[in-house]
């Protein structure tokens, strides 16, 4: 008599096959009786086997049930709801879309239509619900890439209904939304979309995806262009298109106080009302100087910014443009400047992360009072210096209480 093959009790698909279909079916029915999500998943799988029409109908039934519900969803039930949403999204994308892409896009849009109602009744302090919809955005727009203009009409209507949400999802789509589909969407959207801030924001993001710089620029309001950060973004895009003079004009447009940029200038610089220039604006200004051929001016500005902020990326950029051997001398000068900088923490952060541990240890020993002040990074700095520079590590270990703690301490005697 032949020996029966030995079957392991370890859970795996290969081992469960030995139970046979009837036994597995019984187990699934039993498990589904106490698990609503599993029961719905089993119905979806059966519907998928029957065909795309029945699967679409089964998904629509669940979407309709969720859309009409009004009960609040507690944080305890939030995870279960999100799992259910993700299961239905996966069935749309993986099982329905290959068979009927146009129908799958329509159903997935109805799935996205659930968001406003759910956002109003789901306790979502961690942002898990919004993250689930943003994670689905690449699927939505990847599916839109595959359908004809008639099927795409459903998505165009959805964009017009809820431009604010779709502006966020267009951004979350990443590379899934290509230039061609973005242009198809733009060509079909109603011109009235430009009349609201959320509509303009949606169109601007679609123009970005469509690689239509002039349309993107036309959707930036004069007030927005007065923001140093937005002006920097404009300048970078213009530089990439070889439009250097326009890039310079975009940057300089924020320098003169006016009613258009009052939002960005108010309270920033009481002497002349000019806005406080941001790192993004300063970096774009350097790029414009380089593009204009003003190499030395760009280098001088890089060094000036490094002296002020002790920025490692700015210093690396500065050094990378120097001739051989000049960069060694400039690096020594940079470390010397850091050692004398009034911001001890910024100096240590630069030297430790460069890394320049010898110079960092020397800084600790030269300025022990500042080194002993408690900081979140002190433990890491100590561990990294301990082997080669134990004396500096010891200074970092013997931390003094912060000035605020000293004020709170009562004198021990009177």
Automatic annotation (TrEMBL):
Disordered as annotated region, ranges = 393-414
Protein's name according to its UniProt entry: Uncharacterized protein
Organism superkingdom:
Bacteria
Species whose genome carries this gene: Brevundimonas naejangsanensis
